[in-house]
C-alpha cells in the first residue's frame, strides 16, 4: 500500500509540473497525502484545487475531513457546511459529517436538525441514529429519548459497539435515578 501511494504521489507531482493549474491533479495528490495521513499538506492541495473547476462538494468535504483528522473542528465546520449545502445528491455521509462536527462543537440544536436530516436520506444510518441520541441527551438531558435512539441504532446494527455501550450505560443511569 505504501509503495503504491508513493508511486501515485510521484506521478501526480510530475503531472503538476506539466500542467500546474490542473485542479484534478491537485485533488488527486491531496487524496494521496490524505491517505498517508499528511493532512496539512492535503489541505493545502485541496484548497488549491478549489480555485479551479474541481467538484466543489467533494473538495470541501475532504478539506473538512482533513481538519477533522487534526481535531480542528472549528476549521472543519465551514467546509463541511459548504459541502452539505452544495450536495444536490443528498449524500448521507456528507450530511452526516456536517452533523457530527456540529456535535463536536456542541452546537446541539443545529446538530439535531442535521442528524434528523441524515435519517430522512438514510433511515438506517446507524452512526446518525447513535449521535442523534447523544445530541438529544446533551441538549435536553432526557435519558429516555437517548435510550430510544440507542435501541434503534442497535436494531439497525446489533454489532454497533458504541450504541451497545451507550444503551447499557444510559439504561444503568436510568435505573439509578
From TrEMBL:
A Pfam short name: TPR_1
Superkingdom of origin: Bacteria
UniProt keyword Signal present: no
TPR repeat coordinates: 23-56, 127-160
Entries under PROSITE patterns matching the protein: TPR (PS50005), TPR_REGION (PS50293)
UniProt keyword list: Repeat, TPR repeat
Gene3D superfamilies xrefs: Tetratricopeptide repeat domain (1.25.40.10)
NAD found in the keyword field: no
Classification via PANTHER family: CELLULOSE SYNTHASE OPERON PROTEIN C, TPR REPEAT-CONTAINING PROTEIN MJ0263
Name of the protein described by the UniProt record: Tetratricopeptide repeat (TPR) family protein
Gene: yrrB
